[in-house]
Specification:
Largest sheet: 7 strands, mixed
CATH topology of the largest domain: Quinone Oxidoreductase, Chain A, domain 1
CATH class of the largest domain: Alpha Beta
CATH architecture of the largest domain: Alpha-Beta Complex
Number of domains: 2
Length: 346
């Protein structure tokens, strides 16, 4: 550590900022190959002219991180420092930010039409470029989203997953008053319910595991959400899958009213096969299918406002704060989809 470091108060703790940055290495979690995850020292990132060096305060883990460790992912480039749900402090200004993890070209058709999450040249922190499971990360200045003092960092770093649920809701054209069924009572499913509630629709959540519903009862009670293992068929305007099983799609079609909408929010396993009978359901009942991937910067800004208002409820979704070196032992648990959010605290 530097002898000339200075400190700033950070919600009861201390973050150390390094104005001269004479350090050449930092601690990080790097995925070298599938299932080969290392806690190690790596070279400090060197920000480009349009980038800022961010000292990480919190980085949340998600199932996509676990999936990349176990089986890879379409956008993953190895070796890679994982982590895309990031909160930290600018080493230039000392201000706190969350990070929209994308880097878009701003020129392609999706970018010009406000869908920068679908940029043809997208580069994503923790996927294409090194992410937040490290002491520092270099991020584009335009990706920084300031957060208010009253929002703790461990809640703020959940802005990215919440923004993704907002994108799913917007993409599937959920209307005010729609009755919405979310598949999966994990943290992302519950954040989806929060986004739907704020929007003015009526969310319900379904999970095949009764214990999963019981695990999150406090959160459900705070928001007035009902969770169950089964509901009445053909009673919902929209279904959103926050679980990777193809059954969520097949069963979801049967839960929809005629002309209902299904949002493919969570990707399915590569070997899953869809039957002709499910496709015929879409055909005969004029069902609508929407896809949703990632989020936009504006959706992350909107997520920050929701987190400020509902931070006490969202805190119930945090299972535990962990150290950076604990990540390799935690990812297998996350992959089993039986845990809530783990937050790496630096």
């Amino acid at each position: 550590m530097l002898s000339d470091q200075h400190e700033m108060n950070f919600f009861g703790g201390t973050l150390r900022l390094h104005p001269s940055f004479e350090r050449t290495v930092m601690k990080a979690i790097q995925l070298k190959n599938m299932t080969c995850l290392k806690y190690m020292q790596v070279k400090m990132p060197e920000p480009a002219e349009n980038e800022v060096l961010l000292q990480i305060s919190h980085c949340a883990l998600c199932r996509t991180d676990a999936k990349m460790w176990k089986m890879g992912q379409r956008d993953l480039r190895l070796p890679r420092i994982l982590g895309h749900e990031i909160c930290g402090v600018s080493t230039e200004s000392g201000r706190r930010f969350v990070v929209w993890p994308g880097r878009s070209c701003k020129k392609c058709e999706p970018c010009r039409n406000g869908f920068e999450n679908l940029c043809k040249s997208m580069q994503i922190l923790g996927f294409h470029a090194d992410g937040g499971l490290a002491e520092y990360v270099a991020v584009p200045k335009e990706s920084l989203i300031p957060i208010p003092e009253k929002l703790p960092g461990d809640i703020a770093c959940l802005a990215e997953p919440l923004a993704c649920t907002i994108n799913a809701m917007v993409s599937s054209q959920v209307l005010l008053g729609d009755k919405a069924l979310v598949f999966g009572a994990g943290p992302v499913g519950l954040l989806t319910c929060l986004a739907l509630k704020v929007h003015g629709s009526t969310p319900y959540i379904i999970d095949i595991e009764p214990d999963r519903c019981a695990q999150t009862q406090q959160f459900q009670d705070k928001l007035g959400i009902r969770c169950a293992t089964v509901f009445d068929a053909r009673d919902f305007d929209v279904c959103i899958n926050a679980a990777p099983s193809l059954d969520t799609f097949v069963k979801g079609l049967d839960y929809l009213k005629d002309c209902g909408k299904f949002c493919l929010f969570s990707g399915f396993d590569r070997n899953d096969m869809l039957s002709a009978s499910s496709l015929n359901e879409i055909h005969y009942r004029q069902l609508k299918i929407f896809g949703a991937y990632g989020c936009t910067r504006i959706q992350m800004e909107n997520a920050i406002g929701i987190l400020v208002k509902y931070q006490k409820a969202v805190r119930l979704l945090i299972e535990r704060h962990i150290r950076l070196k604990d990540v390799p032992a935690i990812l297998p648990q996350i992959l089993e989809s039986k845990t809530m959010k783990f937050i790496v605290k630096f």
